[in-house]
Design brief:
By secondary structure, this protein is an alpha/beta fold. The protein folds into two domains: 110 residues, Urease, subunit C, domain 1; 286 residues, TIM Barrel, CATH 3.20.20. Helix content is 35%, strand content 22%. The strands form two sheets. Strands 1, 2, 3, 4, 5, 14, 15 and 16 form an eight-stranded mixed beta sheet that branches. The protein has an eight-stranded parallel beta sheet with strand order 6-7-8-9-10-11-12-13. It is globular.
Length: 411
């Protein structure tokens, strides 16, 4: 479907020469935009945009966006979207004072999700995930990364990744998949090296054989996987063409950031526990720091030091971490609100983090993240709102009027 959007109050994130570069440091507060604009989407791609006095004469579906903002659809570069069941009982435990580590120790956390997933069929998992997919699309998300990691057996890790791949084929979302077999050590393994060998020698070859993953991930954290183990697993993934995206520094200064930089990971994600050494390690690297404020909010932990990172000239991206245990929410606009309120990011910085930089963190910057001719016609149209800052400001309001993905108007 070709679509012409007219009378746009402000067309946001219009980029040309810098459309395929991440946004870092002070530049994160700069957001190119065009007032009183049109946007023409043809054959699923952005064809052109400009001021209303340059409006092309075309015959196609026309949307009047008077009083509304148009911006690129969100890119969510870190999720655990495929899972079998929610974990609200653990939510109550947290309220009563139990820590994330204490819940995990008594059989909750990741191992709880693994137990439930292992008892769920592939078709059931897909149908459960489909409900979340529709929710994400309504929130304005067009691209999503989906991790395994709740299987923790060969057959169940493959099952998760097959479901994630199917989502990419059968729904409007652009999907990248990540093999996270090294998410936790199952209780039946008294020798942790035995499980790590299973991940490397049995899981990885099958994941590669079926071409189920784009990336490899490891939960580099105290009580889970050490930096040395993380590097070993990541290097094994490299042998199968899988680039790293590492869970790093969520609960402690774990060494995950340094491993990510050393292995040229595409991103290091979480970063609630960060020091100057971690910031310095990221400077000059090509690794994207990805912040997941939904997890800090839900677990009531410290937030990543976004201001320090931006002041040091780093880029940052935002993602939801959508999962049943520590971030049961997939709303990228709410992540922007948390970034502004609790990490002191400006609305401009938050939007750059949720579009341009998150697209980089999924290797999608050439096709998504900005309003650029030739990129995907994946955009969202707001309701009539007073300013762009209103999106993170009105943190419980649904500010989206319409979502278009690859030139298709979502119902």
């Amino acid at each position: 479907m070709d679509i012409l959007i007219t009378n746009i109050k402000q067309l946001v994130q219009t980029r040309t020469s810098d459309a395929n570069q991440w946004v870092a440091g002070s530049a994160m507060d700069k957001l190119p935009a065009l007032d009183n604009a049109y946007l023409y989407i043809k054959n699923g791609l952005i064809d052109s945009y400009g001021s209303m006095h340059q409006l092309p004469r075309v015959s196609c579906k026309t949307i009047d966006a008077t009083g509304k903002f148009v911006l690129p659809a969100y890119v969510d570069s870190h999720t655990h979207l495929v899972f079998a069941a929610s974990r609200e009982a653990e939510f109550v435990d947290k309220i009563k004072g139990m820590s994330y580590a204490e819940i995990a120790k008594k059989g909750g956390g990741i191992l709880n999700s693994a137990k439930k997933l292992q008892a769920t069929s592939e078709e059931e998992l897909y149908q459960f995930a489909l409900q979340r997919v529709n929710e994400l699309i309504g929130f304005g998300t067009a691209c999503v990364e989906i991790k395994s990691g709740y299987g923790l057996t060969l057959q169940d890790e493959l099952k998760m990744l097959r479901v994630a791949k199917r989502i990419g084929k059968e729904t409007p979302l652009t999907v990248k998949t990540t093999f996270l077999g090294a998410h936790a050590i199952p209780k039946e393994f008294t020798d942790r090296n035995e499980y790590i060998n299973l991940v490397i020698n049995q899981m990885l070859p099958k994941v590669a054989e079926e071409q189920l993953a784009d990336y490899i991930d490891v939960f580099c954290e105290k009580g889970f996987f050490t930096p040395q183990e993380t590097e070993r697993i990541v290097r094994a993934g490299e042998n199968y063409g899988l680039k790293a995206k590492i869970h790093a520094n969520q609960l402690h200064v774990s060494g995950g950031v340094q491993v990510g930089v050393k292995t040229q990971a595409l991103s290091v994600d979480h970063l609630e526990a960060m020091g100057q050494a971690e910031i310095e390690a990221l400077q000059g690297s090509q690794t994207m720091p990805t912040l997941l404020p939904g997890a800090a909010f839900f677990l009531r932990t410290s937030y990543p030091p976004a201001r320090d990172m931006i002041a040091a000239g780093l880029p940052v991206s935002l993602a939801t971490d959508y999962n049943p245990g520590s971030a049961p929410a997939g709303n990228m606009a709410f992540m922007m609100s948390l970034a502004c309120i609790n990490m002191r990011m400006t609305p401009n910085e938050a939007l750059n983090a949720a579009t341009m930089n998150s697209a980089y963190a999924m290797d999608l910057l050439s096709s998504h993240g900005s309003i650029t001719p030739g990129k995907a016609g994946s955009i969202l149209i707001t309701k009539e709102i007073p300013s762009l800052a209103y999106i993170p400001y009105a943190f419980t309001s649904h500010t989206i009027d319409a979502v278009i993905i690859d030139g298709m108007l979502m119902a």
